[in-house]
Amino acid sequence: MSSDRKTWSVKASRTANQATNPIRAIVDKLKLNPNATKPLISLSIGDPTIFGNFNVDPSINDAVVKQLNSFKSNGYPPADGTLAARTAVAQANNHSAAPLTAHDVILANGCSGALEMCINVLCNEGQNILLPRPGFSLYASVAATRFVESRYYDLVPENNWEADLVHMESLIDEKTSAILVNNPSNPCGSVYSRQHLEAILAVAEKYHVPIIADEIYCDLVFKGNEFFPMATLTTTVPILSVGGLAKKWLVPGWRVGWILIHDRNNIFAEINVGLHQLAQIILGPNSLIQAAIPDIFEKTPESFFQDTIKQLEKNVELSMREVSKIDGMVPVNPQGAMYMMVRIEVDKFKDIESDVDFSAKLLDEENVVCLPGECFKYPNFVRFVITPTYDRLEEAYKRIDEFCARHRK
Ligand SMILES: Cc1ncc(COP(=O)(O)O)c(C=O)c1O
């Protein structure tokens, strides 16, 4: 018996110590003003359900109620998901250029759970993964708990947030385990063209690096843009695509995500086995929602998706019109998803030092919350969520306009 067991000494694991949310530390600098007289408007939360204007279609509720009342969907589902649910996901995402069967689908605990499994299966401690900058912070958080290095490739705002491919290429070495591509993007709201996705695939092909395609905002694209599932644009690069019900079906709290294994050339043979093994550890989405998935896919009317997009387009139009008028703020036109990035021209302000300072002062003075770009590793920008109600957005932009006028040189 070791002599150091004489007293209590319980330490958090290395994994827990690595498990930090980079946004938390930045958001903690934003303090609510207890004396605020104006009602709080949040442009920071990427949950479309909280404002009451984006609601599920009744058919989606009916699908779940049917399962609840069947008394047949209360048991443990198989680790990778029920065959019926996986078949439905495979069919919904099947494409002649990227065929899928139920065996290529693994259900997970939200898209976050799917991403965690993808990183876990592809990356070992000491390897690196290429992530977009600006990008969703979860990728780096998961990588850190696996002691995997995050390397960031730049996205270029002047170029519709396309990836700087020369930069991407320069980051690849023998320890690179995957390139993560998020399209449509949080926080950028960009939707990549076929040509750009093909150019990224060419880099992956050249260096034999697999791709994790985060397509949780698939189909949430505005007029004039088209969403291309990345796997439909290659026959050679192996891709793990992740998605879920959270955004397109507006039910992020239901925690349903999936991994689509696209592997035409048996390169992912071990990865396929590995993912099924990882799935054994924690069961994915709860049994009721899994059982409802076939009905949800079959019965959600097309008009539900169109209404969501119409509402987002209206909010984008308002956001671009109002924010473009504000001297010192330069919005980048979103093409999809639920977000808009806005450049803060810090040198036009007399007393605003940075994006974090902008967000902190805006909250303090106007009771409007937005996330500083630093949360996405991209300073001098702020991210606005475009899902609040139209009148709330109007009010927010009015307050931001007044705020900027007060602080301009
Ligand atoms: C780009 C991106 N990927 C993944 C997720 C996680 O999705 P889920 O809520 O299904 O875990 C989000 C959530 O906001 C996201 O923005």
TrEMBL record:
> EC number(s) of the enzyme?
2.6.1.5
> What is its pathway?
Amino-acid degradation; L-phenylalanine degradation; acetoacetate and fumarate from L-phenylalanine: step 2/6
Q: Which GO terms describe its biological process?
A: L-phenylalanine catabolic process; L-tyrosine catabolic process
Q: Which cofactor does it need?
A: pyridoxal 5'-phosphate
Q: Which InterPro entries would you find in this protein's record?
A: Aminotransferase_I/II_large, NHTrfase_class1_PyrdxlP-BS, PyrdxlP-dep_Trfase, PyrdxlP-dep_Trfase_major, PyrdxlP-dep_Trfase_small, TyrNic_aminoTrfase, Tyrosine_aminoTrfase
CDD domains for this protein: AAT_like (cd00609)
Q: Which UniProt keywords apply?
A: Aminotransferase, Phenylalanine catabolism, Pyridoxal phosphate, Transferase, Tyrosine catabolism
Annotated Gene3D superfamilies: Aspartate Aminotransferase, domain 1, Type I PLP-dependent aspartate aminotransferase-like (Major domain)
The catalysed reaction is:
L-tyrosine + 2-oxoglutarate = 3-(4-hydroxyphenyl)pyruvate + L-glutamate
| Domain Aminotransferase class I/classII large stretches | 39-400
Residues bearing PTM N6-(pyridoxal phosphate)lysine: K247
- Which GO terms label this protein's molecular function in UniProt? L-tyrosine-2-oxoglutarate transaminase activity; pyridoxal phosphate binding
Q: How does it assemble?
A: Homodimer.
Q: Which family does it belong to?
A: Belongs to the class-I pyridoxal-phosphate-dependent aminotransferase family.
Protein's recorded name? Tyrosine aminotransferase
The gene designation is: PARPA_13884.1 scaffold 47386
